[in-house]
Write a structure and sequence with these properties.
With 243 residues, this protein is of the alpha/beta class. The protein has helices at 21-28, 47-67, 77-81, 85-99, 106-116, 131-142, 165-177, 198-205, 212-223, 235-239, and strands at residues 8-14, 33-39, 71-74, 121-126, 146-152, 185-187, 209-210.
């Protein structure tokens, strides 16, 4: 694959069949990076559904390793965060040992991005409600962060992409203004279709915004030893800090 993807090939495992974030990633990745996408079909945004999904990732990881990719990214923060920070780390270590390919999850990517921006306390926004937001907050607390809030917007799991960027902007701003001491805003989930308001949020609120798609692009570049800043989608990708 090196002759067509001369800067490296990543295998991504998408947790749902919804469109959106994959196209967004492709548009901002540097030329010469190849992507092989595989898909799960998680339909419910519930803790039990995410726990059940974990076993479905491994056969796809095996397929990508066999295909000879340079890097594997099983996407989807919730399925791995419900394992807890340590449980996720143990699973990644086992997979890397067995399949001999570097692996990073959405959660580890977001932790690395926050650290690269020197963030210690942040406020989170999600498109989930109820107990699961406590699970997400606990994951980051276990990783050493001060989570000031993890506030959800109520929307059916399969309708997240129908939220307008203006609606999401208003939700995020409301969340942040309850915790103005936050050093960053974290958006959990790739289902948001809000890439165009990341810079606007950073300008208005004065803190970096960690959105899963730019964070994914940033880590893919770091892992493949590429440094090609992409303006317009937040400080992380525009400045490409080492993390």
């Amino acid at each position: 694959m090196s002759y067509t993807s001369w800067r490296g090939v990543i295998g991504c495992i998408k947790p749902t069949m919804r469109p959106g974030s994959f196209e967004e990633l492709i548009r901002i990745l540097p030329e010469g990076v190849g992507v092989i996408p595989l898909f799960l079909d998680i339909k419910e945004g519930k803790i039990d559904a995410f726990k059940r999904a974990i076993s479905a990732y491994e056969p796809l990881i095996a397929r990508l390793a066999e295909a000879g990719v340079d890097l594997i990214h099983p996407e989807g923060a919730p399925p791995f965060m419900v394992l807890g920070y340590q449980g996720e780390a143990e699973l990644i270590a086992r997979w890397q040992s067995e399949y001999k390919v570097p692996i990073f999850t959405s959660g580890t990517n977001h932790i690395r991005a926050l650290k690269a921006l020197n963030v210690k306390r942040f406020v989170g926004a999600t498109y989930f409600t109820g107990e699961i937001n406590e699970v997400f907050a606990r994951y980051f607390t276990q990783a050493g962060f001060d989570v000031l809030g993890m506030d959800g917007i109520s929307v059916p799991f399969d309708k997240v992409g129908s939220l307008s960027s203006q609606e999401v902007y208003a939700h995020i701003k409301k969340v942040f203004l309850k915790h103005p001491e936050a050093e960053a805003i974290y958006l959990l989930g790739s289902g948001w279709r809000v890439m165009e308001v990341i810079d606007l949020l950073e300008q208005d609120l004065g803190v970096p915004v960690i959105h899963p798609v730019p964070a994914r692009c940033w880590e893919i570049q770091r892992r493949l030893v590429i440094r090609q800043p992409v303006p317009g989608f937040g400080r992380l990708l525009a400045e490409m800090p080492i993390g």
